[in-house]
## 1
Amino acid sequence: MSAADIALDVTSARRSRAKRLRPVRMLRLARHAAGALWSQKAKAFLMMIGTAVGIMLLTAVVGLSAGVQNRINQITAFFGPRSIMVFAGGGHLHGAGGRAEAGTTLKLQDAQAIQNQYGYEAVVAPGIFSGDTNVKAGGVGTQTHLVCSTPDYAEAFDWYVQEGAPIDSDDERSMARVAVLGTTVATNVFGAEDPIGKHIFINNVPFVVKGLLTSKGTSAMGFDQDDRIWIPLSTGMNRVLHQDYIRFIRMKVRPDYKVASVVDQITQLIRQRHRIVPPEQDDFRIITPDFIAQRVQSMARTTELVGGALALVALLVGGVVLMNILLLSLSERVPEIGLKRALGARQRDILVEFLSESVLVSLFGMILGVLLGLLPVLLIPRLFPMMPMAVSWKTFAYAALFSTGVGLLFGVQPARRAAKLNPVEALR
Amino acid sequence: MIELSKIGKTYLTGGVETPVLHAIDFTVEEGEFVALMGPSGTGKSTLMNILGLLDRPTGGTYRLAGQDLTTLDDNGLSAIRNKRIGFVFQLFHLLPRVSVLQNVLLPFLYTEPYPPDAKERARALLQSVGLGERMNFKPNALSGGQQQRVAIARALVNEPSIILADEPTGNLDSVASGEILEIFDRIHREGRTIVMVTHEPDVAAHAQRVITLKDGAVASDERRN
Ligand SMILES: Nc1ncnc2c1ncn2[C@@H]1O[C@H](COP(=O)(O)OP(=O)(O)O)[C@@H](O)[C@H]1O
Ligand SMILES: [Mg+2]
């Protein structure tokens, strides 16, 4: 009876020579490995620190990247993805604080030349922004932003009136003293009253309110976009500000045309008109969403690179520490390995068991690291709203990938050494 | 059951050949209880390791139930060890970090398919060696004799055909030894094949057959009834 059974077992063992491990068996071995770790919590903790620190840094860096991407998306949406701004004045925009010097060389004729040549490709709205302008109506006074621009302003900025009428070409031609109010100014000056048809003084020049803009709320950069007044550009230049130059040309490129090529063409055109020959500096700046995205990205890049490098170093150091602790503890566990081989463990079973230990340790390190790394990601934006930080699925994907990688990479040598032990010598 | 013919074992260490076993020939029938005796260093453990498929002979053939095992690969040998051979060691070799019950279940880590009644079998065996009340203890909380009984339960849990015990009472006092030998007598009566290494004649007296090795060869082979 027994002999027949053995014969069967031997033939099946000879036939199958099965090297592959079934998933249930691997799961069983992994559970056993988890028990081994649990019984040595202090050592397991030491083994996971490196991974935890690495993953913590990684989580923070990925959080920063995700935040930067969010910020870029916000700014692009705010700026208008197909928009171009030509600003008067040369020099470079440095960081958030730097300001290029104001220029007086950008003229209405430049805008008209652009309009004549690229009118098909883009909507063109020249204008002047003037901050801190005094407005007054019926004894109530306040300060607001004055926008002097042509009727195309509405389409160029996707900003239309909710009540009354926008500035039209008759207003522009006749230098009409008419104004369209943002909702904040309207409430500040007229309270709950309907402002349409009312008189308002802008820098002591009397105007009639003809429209009310839709509300756009607070911008991604944190200022109130509804705190503004829009008047015709001709009126602004000749009756309010008394200047013969403009400060910006806003363009919105039509869907069939490429923003980048329009930028190139108008750069050439303005240089020609202003007789600028590189390497002479331009007396204007052209800003696009891509340009802003690059700026924001380049500000974050250094932090990302340094943080990423530190994370990598921590993961490598952690991996080496993990490997060495595993190798050291191997000598204590030689009899255990011998016993398991005697009980029927194949080399591959031992390998899987030890690899499970190192991967499990790394995964626990990952959990610890993600939790620690999410702290700054969640806290920093509350303390410093300008710091972009966001939680993203990438955080978890990278953390899982890298910690498993560390566990496998640095666990393989100790595990192979354990598997290759001679069972007879291991049992002695 | 076990057929050894011209089994030889020569160790090679640092280019020096150390012959340990020379042409061992004997057969063990199913259900036999064999004691293996002989002076220290004569090759008993070496022979047990070969019988237990932990080591390969350098010469001769080993047949188990008529099957030549010398051609099996490591995976095959492991599978046969797991299902067909139960080991009892002089030093017990229990895993200190897991409970007595988990120790007995250890062989099932490597058994395919995993038996659905594994726990019941382990509990019943612990009951039968008088440790029903200690199943959740850690091995260190048990006496030497009790630990060896756990090891016997572990050796039996996969219902092997052969029990190999290398000086199972070598580390025990006479009372504990007596208890262990009683268990061996019982599993022998239940029909299992046992090969046990011992130095002590009164331990060997429990076996029906005593094979004595000397200088790596069979010096005598006596049966009694
Ligand atoms: N790995 C090995 N390399 C070399 N010699 C060994 C090795 N293992 C055992 N021996 C030698 O083989 C002989 C028999 O050892 P062993 O089988 O343990 O004897 P016993 O169990 O009968 O006391 C001893 O002389 C021992 O030194
Ligand atoms: Mg020995």
Note: Residues 27-73+295-427 of chain A form one domain.
## 2
Amino acid sequence: MTDYNFAYLDEQTKRMIRRAILKGLAIPGYQVPFASREMPMPYGWGTGGVQVSAAVLTPEDRFKVIDQGADDTTNAVSIRTFFERTAGVKTTTKTTDASVIQTRHRIPEEPLTEGQILVYQVPIPEPLRFLEPRESETRKMHSLEEYGLMHVKLYEDISRHGHIATSYAYPVKVEGHYVMDPSPIPKFDNPKLGDMAAIQLFGAGREQRIYALPPYTEVVSLDFDDHPFEASKADHPCGLCGAEDSYLDEVIVDDAGGRMFVCSDTDYCEARQAAGHRGKDAA
Amino acid sequence: MTPLLSVQGITKRYGAHIGCADVSFDLYPGEVMGIVGESGSGKSTLLNCMAGHLTPDAGEVVFDTRAEGPRDTVRMSEPERRMLSRTDWAFVHQHARDGLRMGVSAGGNVGERLMAVGARRYGDIRDKASDWLERVEIDAARIDDRPTTFSGGMQQRLQIARNLVTGPRLVFMDEPTGGLDVSVQARLLDLLRGLVRDMGLSAIIVTHDLAVVRLLADRLMVMKSGHVVEAGLTDQVLDDPQHAYSQLLVSSVLQV
Ligand SMILES: Nc1ncnc2c1ncn2[C@@H]1O[C@H](COP(=O)(O)OP(=O)(O)OP(=O)(O)O)[C@@H](O)[C@H]1O
Ligand SMILES: [Mg+2]
Ligand SMILES: [Zn+2]
């Protein structure tokens, strides 16, 4: 395909995005504005993540796309195909084989390693948006580290539900300064954000923001002393591979309302099954 | 004694138009200053300049800070000034919706300033919020209700609780009783008077209503066209006004 520049975006745009990424890495958790480009897909499909991936991919990379843990959803397949066609890069579904992983809603169970890049698709980058719609004000709050409002949100949660009910996009504090929205990953994944060996990049297309966590960054989930953060998950082992430590989806398996819990990270589950692990629902 | 607040030569113009001009006064700890004057006389402009919401074109607003003594708040850094706004200062708006988060429960509204200065025990924040709701005569059982379900008087009392929970030393109020029914006003005034006395608060109250200053203010400034035309002890100014404009203001009230 010679109709496109490598990875679709022209070199100047990629340079602009790389500058934003570098700034983001230099100031972990800080939202860097960038001039988001029209991509040949709708915003809800992760155009922010796609632009970040386009800016970091090299011909030698091996690319993986996860959508809610799975590699085979329409969204994941179309983004993977997009880069196969526009960049000619090799793709994979194996976390351990991938050098660049674009994700929506999950962090892989397999610990990532140095040299890997995890690119998140972000719908709403501003964690304070919910309570303070004025952007001039939220920008000031970030620069002055005025984050009382973030705890108001958690306070409201506890007063309404008896516990912190926020289970996705759970806010974190980065290196003791910026409060950051980790994108709608389950809070089960929050502890993996901190001290990760891989580079983590976050792209919000519609909102035109990029932010980043360099390797081994301190990331702390906000909480109260008497309501500490908990990385909760369904209290079951995986029905297919028996894993006790992975994040589970509840799936309906028959017309009679039968249910089972399976790993949301399909690559992780398949690798375990291939290694001989079996859950109670495995055929 | 060091004044808690020393205002020197505050001037604010809107283009060629004068908002307030060359206003100076000292406020001592525990004192309540009333600012009266007709609509457009510059009361809110002056108040907002003192509270850091507007930057004056000239003048100083020197506040006796806990840590470092007297500091000119006009020239201090924005983070320092915003920190003062969350701790030692409070601002009660005329319209409660300007001073409350309408989408957040009463408890969250009261707790916000506590959390802003680092409170991290939910149980403590909630206890303090309950306590403050009771102090402003709101049933603590309403702690999880949103202000949108409160009456105008309750919203105003909630705004006051939200402001006073961190134990500020100086409270700015812009028409705190404006827009409320007369009976609701009276109750709010009683409450404010009690709080000011119990907490030893210093306050600056802007109002149209001479009954408000009569009840709350130790001293009074009368403004006209951006200038202070008369200042003195409240009873003196109200009972024996010297400036023709003050005389007019007082007599117009007596006619009511
Ligand atoms: N943002 C602004 N731009 C231009 N002029 C303004 C602005 N705000 C106030 N003014 C003018 O400055 C003068 C003082 O206004 P200010 O609001 O301080 O009066 P006030 O005494 O608080 O009146 P009120 O009792 O009606 O609240 C008025 O002439 C007003 O029209
Ligand atoms: Mg006014
Ligand atoms: Zn599994």
Note: The helical segments of chain A are 11-26, 47-56, 74-87, 135-143, 148-161, 190-193, 266-274.
## 3
Amino acid sequence: MNPAARSQANRALALRLLGGVAAAFAFGFLLVPLYDVICEATGLNGKTRGAAVAMADTRVDTSRKVQVEFISTTMPGMPWEFSAGEPRVSVHPGEITTVHFRVRNMTASTITGQAIPSVSPGKAASHLQKLDCFCFKQQTLAPGEVRDMPVSFIVDARLPDDVSALTLSYSFFAVDAAPGDAGRS
Amino acid sequence: MSTGSIAAHGHDDHAHHGPTGLARWLFTTNHKDIGTMYLMFSMIMFLIGGSLILSVRAELFQPGIQIIQPELFNQLIGLHALVMIFAALMPAATGFANWMLPLQIGAPDMALPRLNNWGFWLLPPAGTILLMPLVLYLFGIGTGGADAGWTLYPPLSAQSGWGIDFAILALHLMGISSVMGSINVVVTILNMRAPGMTMMKLPMFAWGWLMTAFLLIATIPVLAGAITMLLTDRHFGTHFFDAAGGGDPILFQHLFWFFGHPEVYILLLPIWGFIPHILETFARKPMYGYKAQVWSLVCIAALSVIVWAHHFFTAGMPVQALIYFMYSTMSISVPLAVLFFCWIATIWRGSMTFETPMLFALGFIILFGIGGLTGLVLADVAADAQYHHSYFVVAHFHYTLFAGGIMGVMAGVYYWLPKMTGHMYSEKLGKAHFWLTVISFNLTFMPQFFVGLAGMPRRIPDYALQFTEFNVISTIGAFALGLSQLIFVYNVVTTWRGKGEKATDGVWEGSKGLEWQLSSPPPHHSWDPQPVIK
Ligand code: HEM
Ligand SMILES: [Cu+2]
């Protein structure tokens, strides 16, 4: 092959490979929505639905009892006190239950927070249906304000038999501050 | 490899040389010059990365906090790993590719010489950007270097200081550099081979590098995407990994390890390529199972992109996913075992001699074998719950990356140094270097298996009293290991400067392959015209 033809061929192949690089870069970003879709479809990762269920299966299965435990956490940079009214409740599948969580803003400024729920074990996540939840919207608390916030939920009757206890966890994040600022302040 | 027709092309081509001094190195497009720069850069960064971790080992000599505060400790471990992986091991492999691929496949140079020059010159600025925040911190300026480990997991990496931003920039530069290098390697191998050299006559080193290059092209951009998302999360209000905004920190682990697991093979495939050349040379037998080795390399590269989640089994996954990632991970050991089998069969009943490159190659096989076997243990989901994030993992990946990576590279350096410089290194110093390295390496890392099994977590500056003895041994071993490497540096540098007797063209009695048909050192422009392979 003469040098000119070869350098032509080299450049063409290099460009094709560069196309491969661009495709791989795009693929990396494609993984983000893909990951969410997979988590949502399978209930992996304890992700629960972000909004109230329109219709829940309310046949009560009185033959079974399930323990639901609550965990409340505030993330770094979130100066609120956050606790569950009761640490756990025992419910029949299909039964509507309402519990309360309490937050208190311990600072002298108004702060907005967002609670993020998570359920474990992951396979129970899609069976814990929230009818109403403070996590559906942001909460804004005036200095020193205390608020009691309800969560109404149903553990639906299709919960797999081997699950006898599940944990509902809420983490409260400060909304205004970017995460980088929160850690450094 | 069949013999080529050699054009006698001596040292009489000084006319092409052009600029001398610094300008020669800055603007060079010659594959041998660029290869030399890569190898020198790699050696310097190896020493820097080693010094970082020796200060860590000094702190771990005794329980309690003596000399290094936790903030600094966290910077040192992460920067050690980033330096070793991206600035020492990867550039060493690229250095060999530059030096040897054109010689081995009978090409006059790399296919894209200008790109080659840029690829190298991105590295020194990248290394500086990575380390500068640490240096400034030592003078009391700023928030310090990247301190979230080499894996840069959020939320920690989203919260810590601007060392992370510098590390992200450095990783981008090093990533671009290695993608450029990979494109060059693929084009060189596919387009520049000597006439008659079919793909199934390629030297094994070229096959190893070809697989590495494809993996780099496929996975470095995913890492680039992940750290870009991290950057925008930190500064521009996105929430890719921020749970408060609907993101998910576990997503980062998926993206990171989609790159990270193939990366461990990226580091090793070139070495698995040239180790068989060393074995066949010193066993004076043809390489066993050429085809089996080629297909094993291809299989390993393909499998390596579908097993990533074994790095975070404990982050919580459904059982089905755990089982899938466990078995797919374990399946990689099948082609790996084929490679081991071929290596052993190559030296089986050979008339072996034990020059330094062969010693390092044999040490590589045994110690890397331990690394692979302990990897199988970690791939067991049930066992990993106990071993994850313990010193057992640290020991595992040092048996793969130090014994498999660095010692493999050293085998290559000793093997090709006479070819590159035209002079023999000191065999006595080489052997001393080997034995000191093997002994102190095991002294350093063997205790870490036990201390990990006993429950000592990694990435921690203080530890419980019962782990003291193991850590004392490990620290003594580490300092011995570090000091032993100075013998290597001395041996290489003096050989480069012309000490030692003149090397013959073949250098080794049993050497095979095109590079050994050129003079030692090869002329500045070689294989022009190209040899013809029959
Ligand atoms: C049969 C081969 C191998 C298997 C089955 C294997 C398996 C594993 C597993 C399951 C882990 C995760 C352990 C944990 O964090 O709990 C791990 C970690 C690691 N392995 Fe391997 N491995 C193998 C070979 C290798 C090779 C060849 C390399 C490098 C060249 C390597 C480098 C690493 C590194 C760097 C880590 C730790 C990463 C980190 O958390 O910082 N492994 N390995
Ligand atoms: Cu892996």
Note: Chain A has two domains: 3-42, 47-175.
